[in-house]
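User: Can you fold this complex?
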Amino acid sequence: MADRNMSPTKCPMPSLAPDYRNKVFEEVATGYTYEMAINEARRCLNCKNHPCVSACPVRIDIPAFIERVANEDIEGAFKILNKQSTLPAVCGRVCPQETQCESKCVRGIKGEPVGIGRLERFVADWHREHSTEKMTPPASNGHKVAVIGAGPAGLTCAGDLAKLGYKVTIYEALHVAGGVLSYGIPEFRLPKAIVNKEVENLKDLGVDIETDMVIGKVLTIDELFEMGNEAVFIGSGAGLPRFMGIPGESLKGVYSANEFLTRINLMKAYLPESKTPIRHGKKVAVVGGGNVAMDAARCAKRLGADEVYIVYRRGMAELPARREEVEHAQEEGIIFKTLTNPVEVLGFNNPDDPRDPRNGEVCGMTCVEMELGEPDASGRRRPIVKEGSEFTLDIDTMIMALGTSPNPLIRSTTPGLEANKHGCIITQGEDGLTSREGVYAGGDAVTGAATVILAMGAGKNAAAAIDEYIKNK
Amino acid sequence: MFKIVTKQELNPTVTRMSIEAPMVARKGKAGQFIILRVNEDGERIPLTIAHCDREAGTVDIIFQIVGGATMELNAKKQGEYIQDFVGPLGKPTEIEGLKKVAVVGGGVGCAIALPVAQALHAQGTEVHSFVGFRNKDLVILEDDFKACSDKLFMMTDDGSYGRQGVVTVPLEEAIVAGENYDEVIAIGPVIMMKFVCLTTKKHNVKTVVSMNPIMIDGTGMCGGCRLTVGGETKFACVDGPDFDGHLVDFDEAMKRGAMYRDFEGHKREETCNLLKKEAE
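Assistant: Here's the predicted assembly.
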């Protein structure tokens, strides 16, 4: 066993310089070198209770994979990761490790925790670049399962079932697989080549992916059963974007974050040759404080905006986004207008010429300042409007990143599938069983907008439950 | 990949294509739409279904060349393939129980009005069709409309064919003359639908319009297709595309529809030059 590295701090993540990267879509964090990874891995004490594992939604054997890295057996480390995670290169990049595995790391008590996420990413990237081993489909067990949605939940569920010998078909509504990994998370945070590779791995395992298939429209869940599937997993993801309900939200230049990001990530509208249009705003306000808001703001900056604001009604400490994303955004020049809430979007209007093409374009927004009062039901301090604090912010583009409500297409076409008052599919316990026999669900379709790793955890639990269900039929 | 089984030029700017898409053909109904991409890096274009042939497994689309993507689509030949074709999306037009309906179509919107008129006719509804075009050269689907309409009113803006004027003129005359329509179904340019609704509102005749706003995924994710209907935000892709015309904020829809006009024009020119080069 090599010597432990007792440095109290994590090896910093190498990344592109802020002034360079805020103009391009290249990946910001460039990843550990081999030496950095070995050194960081040697910070792990391989402690007895491995609290990190219990804080991982997919229960990766973290100390074991890190030990392999410390001993320079990277392929061995990958095998351990791959046992629990279908998408390690993705998770290593987008998981909120600081609130999961790393939050429980004993090294974090007297310093910084081990950089578990960075090591996971290193191992997955190393494997992708060096391994020639191709996954092969295991022997068939003769059973068929349908998965709806090729996002993190669906891909994970499909991968786990395929490894058990099931014939799995994933039905994806869009023209590419990946779900939010493809349309939502930008290239500079999660290169699409990595998503594509993870999807290819699943295909090598024997999973069929049918794109352009909107379940609930082209086929119903009942028809999927008629086609010989013995169980169905619904991972249809987040749905319709929320708006604030303030005047002016339909003006030209007001986007939902979903639309803005889909144009950029899925349709590649940032490339000059793209056929899909996008507005290159000069003064952009993004309303909201989550990861999606950070992604939208950083995309707007890269499209050439001079000023990009994050407008959030609570304070910096309450931002729901990952700390790392907030820091990256700040470094790139995003301006944080916290304790601020929009009350109206202002549109251009030429009173002398009703045909002026600029009519109806966003030209500003009226905001109020907020202060924090007593904690509300969510435990966070409730923002209250400061009297007489109204002011106008000069903007030409506004992006609403306020979350989503689940997609209605499946629940409205599946008799007996129960949903709660928000439209989220109701499941029993951990395994994702819905009110319909043989129908399981997980991810944002159940929880409302959440994280990639929680969706993967749900997909994983459902796969195990589906296996049990079919075996015991 | 989806095969173009037949292609037919209806007028110099409007083309009809029959696409092999058996899964969509099996389920598609009048009023629903599809989204297609011509090439690997193409834009997603929403188009309302013009006809579904369940037996042949084909779906017909009729489109006007407005931007780069529709120009590329139009450059495809019979027997060639398009990249993606997804649907049927949106809700079908509700026609059950209607006894007498005025179907109003404007320009290329007639392509979408036709299947509605046909479906009504097939269930025994009395159909009066009011169709309008800019001029004689742009008239499409006249025989098809004749075949499924009890009465057909042909209008052109310049009077070069049929009667001169806009569709709201004969529509209002018919309403005033005592034709008791259960419903008016209007499909065409937003400005036409707006004026049809202003006309029918005066006479208190229920009017349904088919909206075709900017859209990307078409499955209830992006929110680009939002409209204000009765003061509420609605999404054309999952709540529509049909809405109660008396509640739709048409002025807002028109402004939002023009959001990318410059970009569209630019891309059309770019694609046009590209296609010319390829042809040389």
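Chain A touches chain B at residues 173-175, 183, 211-214, 217-219, 237-241, 243, 245, 249-253, 255-256, 258-259, 262-263, 266-268, 273-277, 279, 357, 359-360, 407-409 (CB under 8 Å). The radius of gyration of chain A is 23 Å.
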